[in-house]
Amino acid sequence: MDSLGTMVAKRVAFGLLTLIIISLLIFLGVELLPGDVAEAILGQSALPETVEAFRRELKLNLPPHIRYFTWLGDFFQGDFGTSLANGRPIADLIGWRFANTMFLATVAALIAVPVSIILGILAALYRNSLFDRIISMVTLSTISFPEFFVAYILIALLSVQLIIFPSISNINEQMSLLEKIHAIFLPCMTLTLVVVAHMMRQTRAAIINIMASPFIEMARLKGIKRMRIIVLHAFPNALSPVINVVAINLAYLVVGVVVVEVVFVYPGLGQLLVDSVSKRDIPVVQASGLIFASVYIGLNLLADVLSIISNPRLRNPR
Amino acid sequence: MSKLKELEALFTKGNITRREFLAQASALGLMAAVSPALLTTPAQAAAPKKGGRLRLGIAGGSTTDSLDPALFEDAFMQNVGWQLRNCLVEIDADGNPIPELAKSWESTPDASKWIFKLRKGVEFHNGKTLDAEDVVFSINHHRGKDSKSAAKGIVDPIKEIKADGKYSVVFTLEGGNADFPFIMSDYHLTIFPAGTANIAKDGIGTGGYTLVSFEPGVRALTKRNPNYWKEGRAHFDEVETIGIADTSARTNALKTGQIDFINRCDLKTVHLLKRVPGIQIIRVTGTRHYTMPMRTDTKPFDNNDVRLALKYAIDREQMLKLILCGYGSVGNDHPIAPSQRYHASELPQRTFDPDKAKFHMNKAGLEGHAFKLHTSDAAFGGAVDAAVLYKEHAAKAGIKIDVVQEPKDGYWSNVWLKKPWCTCYWSGRATEDWMFSTAYAADAKWNDTYWKHDRFNKLLKAARAEIDDKKRREMYVECQKIVRDEGGVVIPAFKDYVEAATSKLKFTKVAGNWEQDGQRCCERWWFA
Prior knowledge:
- By secondary structure, chain A is mainly α.
- Chain A is built from 15 helices and no strands.
- Chain A has two domains: 4-76; 90-315, MetI-like fold.
- The two termini of chain A are 13 Å apart.
- The relative contact order of chain A is 0.14.
- By secondary structure, chain B is of the alpha+beta class.
- The interface between A and B is large, with 49 and 49 residues.
């Protein structure tokens, strides 16, 4: 297990380096866009002197590298800074939104991951049957539609025709957990429909792959039931690719939901990021970008660790 | 029958008079179908009722918004701003200035010095009593070297502001301006307590609602100010303003009853929304218009024949039909809306005339020249489509227009005022003078056509300080004529505000100076 510890430490160090490079890329990217926060906010009403005053106050007239390193210095001291646009502390802006994003992602994951793995196992079990084809077709259709289309279909069916769920999910802190879950049901369904196919197909493929191995043949010759073979013999050996694809989809649930957030008016990080980019609010863009990047790096690391643990051959390399 | 329904709705809402209603219903031959109850009870007889939570679904909010009025830029904050605070002057539904925090005002005969008398005993949400110092402080917030206010341009002509006693404020202007009270109704110029340290976070004002919570671009919750000084205003217990950028999300939320009101309806589907029971469509003629300014200091637009040729080469009727789905009115190449006081209705409407366009282009000797029209949907929704449509129209007159699509980001800084010809919009201003001196006067900072017309500028200056209404009207009519015939701007259309609400919401005449009943819906409306 020692080698695992070193591996994790190494990966965390590389992760931090990646984050710094990402922050630099984000900074450069936003710098390259035309205009700055002063021009973006004042828009058509900008006067040369008001834009100048704006820049003076926010120290935007300093050269870019100085602004970047000042920001980086503060960041390492745990100070995210304040939004350039409205002067609010970024921790306040991001904190509850990130919690909302995580809430939606968690609920969606709790539904999507078990559903897709069970469906994948069943599909492998009844391989090439009508059932297998139907669920493949259905899940592949839902992943092929753009998210907003799936979202609108769900709204039209479950919110406008049958008035069961609300069409907008503007949750707030006064709501109870149950009310919140009711409110986010439709975005959750949308996300689930979008991610199930990927995980389901991977589970199915991995299991079918294992099913061709000699030890499965052996098990079958012993007369074990097919279901038991798949669940107890094949699936544990198929875990590694499944974990990886689950990790990618979990990351997607956190960082890729901007469209779903907009359609359902859900107050998550995505909308904040989009607005901040369009207003050139660099510190907010940086903070949200880094959070997203950390989620990716963290989940990938977790996936690697889990696949090593689940696979004795990787656990004890020669 | 749907036409009759529409008429009935318009009449009940007070958008058309009883006489108009009867005339139009008879014209349809539908009088027998009119409900007798409708005509026996006067429209809007019921007095406003108190109570309820108004939930507004508003496009035009951003997570970068701030409570600082200097940075207000779009519908969400305009509305929240007036829930919390008041101006010195309010614009009523007919476009007239009426007293708000100022009880009355008067000026010297040359209109260069204005004295505003303040209302006594008005309290801020924190209990402080309003006095002249607060007004001076609030207006000065937009002035001076370090101002980053979007309203700096309109307060620049103020030379000096002075408190004269506790309840009187004296404004000394650089020149006469008979319309100065209108300026004081601008949504940026709301009043907050003197000494407010962090205006970006502080929602204290004298308004009808006090701030409970505010999350920029997402949600603002306010509750009725029990101590509100205005009689018969602010009827809701609570107002929840929700930022909903997506048009379909807004429409669905209204249809499913999660909100009570939406702004900026989808014009392509509003005829379907109209049929949904329990929903009313609110359509108001506004002053917002789309423009295509040409830089008259730049070749070839310095030649008036070129400008005229391009003005004749656009089919305004079709623009209105295709870009605005008919929700608006055609422009006549000057920025004064049909609803405004001194609108020159006597000027003939300019129409699509390929022959005249050709004639003027030949006269300028530029047949075959390719004109570059810079555009982006940042200018207005559908601006790119409008430019392409324009290109097709102009082709019929043998004029070649190249549509250059610019990025949305930085459009106002890099394209507008910079490129020789581009697309743009103006929200319109409450007065003729305000509009002209913002974007047409020779020394205006936003003179986007770089147009310097001696006669026009003289007239504008004279009209500004003219007290005689008849003379003033003549001057403004001439101004409009000059802009129309010699100005550097093509104005294809004025846009209507189209909004929708549950039919439980009641109101009298809806103002057209801004969206949402002049952004005062929370004060003026009530639930049946």
